[in-house]
Each structure stands twice: as C-alpha cells, then as structure tokens.
Amino acid sequence: MGLREKASRYRIGKSEDIIENFELLFAGKTLTQSELTDIKHEIKSRISEITSILDRKLIDMNTLFEIGKELNSTLHVDDLMQIVIFTLMGQFQIFDVAIYFIRDSHTDLHAQKGFTDLPGFEFSAKFIDFIGSKDNALAVDELLEYPDEYTHLFNSGATLVIPVKGKNRLMGMIFLGAKMNNEKFADEEKGFSYTLASLAGIALDNARLYSELDKRYQELSTLYKVSNVINSSDDYDLVLALILETITTGFGVKKALVLSHDDNIYQVVETVGMDSSLKTMEINFTNTENKMMDDNVTGILDINPDLSQYASDFLRCLFIPLRSVAAKVGAIIIFEFDQYTVHPENTDLINLFSIIASQIAPPVFMTKLIKMEKEKIQDPFTPLLELINKEIEKVENFGVDITFAMLKLTNFNKYIEFYGGGKAFQKFDALSAKIKKDLPPEVKPVRYGSNRILFIMPAIAQTDFEDVKDSILLTSQSFFKDDQEVDIGIDFLSVKYPDDTEDKFAILSRIE
C-alpha cells in the first residue's frame, strides 16, 4: 500500500469503513480477489445490520400499533395505565415502573410496579416544567441540574424519565427502573417509550374528557332531581336536610357549614363532617366575604378567622353566598370534598356551585319565611278556637247568631316561587291592611297562617254579609290584577252559628 493510500485511510480514521469511502480508497486501482471478498463481506454485514434495524423498527411499529388499539379501546384510566405498565415491562425486561399524574403543578403517584423507595417525594414545579418542555425520554443522568430529584431517583433505582403529554399539556411522568441485563436505554428505545407515552397521553386525555362529561352529566342530573324535590316542600327544616343530603351524597362534600342570615347576623345552622357544637355559632364575615355576599359571587377564599381553630387542617374554603332576589338568605362554606380540589384555579368547581346556589337559595328563603310566619303563632289552631268560643259566648248572651268566614289564597305557594317570598308576603300584608280598612267596624279580621284571613261577624244581616263578601273578593281580585303570570286563586267560605252548625268545634274545619 502506497503512502497516499495510507494517508487517505488515516484521514478517514476507520480503515474497515470500505463502503462509505469506496471511491477514495480504490480510485484507479484494480481490485484483488481478497479485496472483492472483503467488500462483499462488508456489504452483507451492512445489509444484515440495516435489516436488523428495520426488523426492530417494524416490530416496534407493530407493537405501538397494537398498543394504540388497546389504549383506545377503553376509557377507564386504571385500565389504560395497566396496559402501559405491562407493555413497558415486557418490551424492556424491567421490573420497576411508576406513573405519576400532574395536578395543579403537583405530582400524584397513580400506579406502580416495584419501586418501593420511589413514593413519598414531592417533585418541584421547576422540575415538572423541565420535563414538560422535553419531547423525548431522558436518562436520569441527564437530570444533574436538579440535584434533589436526581438524588432521589438515582437512590430509588430509576434510570429513565418519560414525559406523558396530552393534546396541549404535560399530564404525567413515567419512571423506569434498570433493565435485567443492566444495559442503558438506546436512543431507539427512548424513542419507542416516548411514542408509547404520547399514545397513552392522548388516550388519557380522551378518558378524562369522557369522565368529565359523564361527571358533569351526573352533576346536572342530580341537581335537577334535587331541585325538584327541594322546590316541592314548604318545610324549612326538610329543605335544609335535603340540601345537606344533596351536597354530601351528590357532590361529595366531606366538611362544610351551612349559615343562616338573620338581623344582619350570620349563624351556623347545620354542619357536615364537623363538630355539631358549632350550631348557633355566630360568624363575623370579613370584608371580602361581605363583598362577595353583596355581589352574589361564589369563590375560593382563605379561612375566616372565626373558623381557623375549627378548620386548621385547611388553607382555603369554597364560599357560596345564598341569595334570593335582593334578600340575603345565608351561605355555605365547604372545606373538603371527596372528588374536588379546593383551589383558586378550579373554576369548574366555582361555576358548578354558583348554579347550585341559584337553585337552593329561593326555596330556602321561601320556606324560612313560611316558618317565621307560622312561628308568630306557635299553635295557630288552639288560640283561634278559643277566640271563636269567646265570640260565640258573647252572642249567645244576647240570643243572636254569628257568622264566620275565611278568605284563602289557594295558589300562594306558586306566587312565592314566581315573585319571591319577600314580595309575596309584603303583598299579602298590604292586602290584609286594605281589607281591614274597608270593613265595617263590627267585622273583626284575624290573620290565620301565611295565606288566610278569618272574619268574625256577629249579628250580621244576610244582605250586609253579601256586601262584605263582595267587597273582600273585589279588593282581593283587584289587588293581584297586575300579576298576570300567576293565577292567585281566591276561596271564600262561610258558616253561621247556630244556623249552619251547632258544633262550635267544627266551625274552623268547615271554612279552612
């Protein structure tokens, strides 16, 4: 071999690289049989190497294709993760695999095989951002810029970190342990694992989307059903009980307080998962809470100072004002859920409970007013019965009769639902005052319940009774003539004693 040829081979660096430098090595030279044999051997070796690489690529592609079909055949997250774990274990002959999900810049270990020392470590937000910026799998040795994470992963036996990306964000990380033969992961293997993780990320995104849609459907269905039940009752205590059942069983509330607003005081009326001794406790709202109450805005807040000792395990709470029309009904303060995170960025949770508040506030307000009205006369029947007996005794001494009549607004509950309890009871108060003003002095009106007025008319002639009746009905009808959306419904029943009945105790039941 001449000096020129030796020099060219020295420049090339690899004397056996015959194919790539063929023209340079054999230009103007007749090949010997030995050289031809070497060239044929090199070509066969190269073809075998390329064939092996292509076969491997084909196997990997076929594996990814089959795994992709498997991943897209289920919408269950746990099933998806098990497919990924067993695929990686079989493909690379490893025993340790762990999958972490990313939620609100925090990591959550979702599934693992092996890796007994890996759990219990919180990865930093910077580390998560770094992994999310990569479009390939990384050897643990490439993480030296993050000493805490590197040390923990190295000591735990992890050798590879694989980003799991959805359609537009990092959804998780997969950690792999060492191979059985202790070889490092080749570039092709890193590429395979990243592609598999990407397929899993898309499938996981679809599964979560389905899960969110299904959860939203269940939430709205629950809200619709409970709204119907709540609005069907006029019992304040029952409505509160239904609300508690709704937020605990329907929406997974674990710890919460229900507050009532009376005389500018907020007081605990019900508790969920907290000490029942908190009932009747008065809460001083912060300026922020008062502003959210005034604006009827639901949001995530720091714990109220009055509640800090009872909710010391929590940093934040979901504050839900309850308002009906212009009236402040109260509030719900939720500290913990089964399935939701109380975090300022959780706008879906805030929006959901804004809708819930709009549904439960009106019936709470309405039933609360009804309860207050009933409590004005704790036993409306007995005092009224005693009054009727006294009036009968008076007229019996003079040997005359007495007429009792009852005005009843039959659709008053529907009126409350449509116009709100505040307007409804103000309207009935004004009607009572108007009727009383127009009555003859001998006729005595008595409020009975939330939608009735009893009239006591001693020794009244039939013609005068008809005039009083017409006046009451005309006033009542004209009073609601502008409220066309609800037919208020007016009943007027009467009974004369002793002409119609001699049973004093049956009078009230005859006109109710």
Structure explained in plain terms:
The protein is of the alpha+beta class. The chain is built from 15 helices and 15 strands. It has helices at 3-12, 22-26, 33-71, 77-92, 125-132, 147-156, 187-231, 236-250, 287-295, 347-376, 381-398, 412-419, 421-438, 462-479, 507-511; strands at 97-103, 106-113, 138-139, 158-165, 170-177, 253-262, 265-272, 282-283, 299-302, 316-324, 327-337, 402-409, 444-448, 452-458, 490-497. It has a 6-stranded antiparallel beta sheet. It has a 5-stranded antiparallel beta sheet with strand order 2-1-5-4-3, with helices on both faces. A 4-stranded antiparallel beta sheet has the order 13-14-12-15, sandwiched between helices.
Keywords, please?
512 residues, six-stranded antiparallel beta sheet, five-stranded antiparallel beta sheet, 15 helices, rod-shaped
Order of helices and strands: HHHHEEHEHEEHHEEEHEEEHHEHHEEHEH
Within the largest sheet, what's the order of strands?
8-7-6-11-10-9
Low-confidence stretches: 1-15
Number of helices: 15
Main β-sheet: number of strands, strand sense, barrel status?
Answer: 6 strands, antiparallel
Report the average pLDDT across residues: 82
Describe the oligomeric state of these chains in a short phrase.
single chain
Q: Measure the end-to-end span.
A: 127 Å
